[in-house]
Amino acid sequence: MARLYTEDLNISYGERLIVRDMSIEIPDKKITTIIGSNGCGKSTLLKAMTRVIPHQAGAIILDGRSISRESTKALAKKIAILPQTPESATGLTVGELVSYGRYPYQKGFGRLTSKDMDVINWALEVTGISEFKYQSVDALSGGQRQRVWIAMSLAQETDMIFLDEPTTYLDMAHQLEVLELLQKMNKEQGRTIVMVLHDLNQAARFADYIIALKDGQIVKAGASEKVITRDVLRTVFQIDAEIGRDPRTQKPMCITYNLLKGGNENEKTANHVSALVGSHS
Prior knowledge:
The protein contains 10 helices and 12 strands. By secondary structure, it is of the alpha/beta class. The chain has one domain (about 5-260): Rossmann fold. A hairpin with a 2-residue loop joins strand 9 and strand 10 (about 215-220). Helix 4 runs antiparallel to helix 5, helix 5 runs parallel beside helix 6 and helix 9 crosses helix 10 (about 265-275). The two termini are about 15 Å apart.
């Protein structure tokens, strides 16, 4: 049994049901990527699994206990989350922002201990931003700022890190820089990484496990070869894709695609949903 899983999970915003009856396991010490069209429930699922938002029914289990029963500090020692739009760090230095990751371990007046400083310096070094420790976060490039937020997550010393679209607003080089850093953390430190990505080829290249969502339900989950397929992409994104192989990684790759048009194509896609949902494992 995985350390983190959901059972018949329902998540709503007001009266609108976003995620329906979802049961999924997050593989330990692997990189899991959640894909799907806008509004399908990707970020909602991520937020619920980290208790940023509540769920209305079902259960989210971590280490044999419902996360709703964990204290905030106890949960923060197990799970770190980097939201899609991190809060402003105006006026903070890199070192100061990374030090916020030590909050779950602070007592009393919250002074940083020598152990805290060791962990902060380690997080700065691992993410390659030690030289910016005393610089303002505002003065950094987008890719460098994203590394600072990841370093703050590392400073929490959690086994699991959740990231909501960590490559948003970054150019191609900085996107690759961030994803390679996450992959390195997974391979060398055994961290469980769960992230939402829009780029299908990045998802296929870096993920060990992909969860494809449509309308709050799982269409398919598994290795990239099982998920990045013509049928699944037709169902999830309403596109007719040509799938090939990345010549460097041998992972599946979306080479080109067209939008599905016309009633017949939409009918075919509807039929694919019933065939795929429920057979995602």
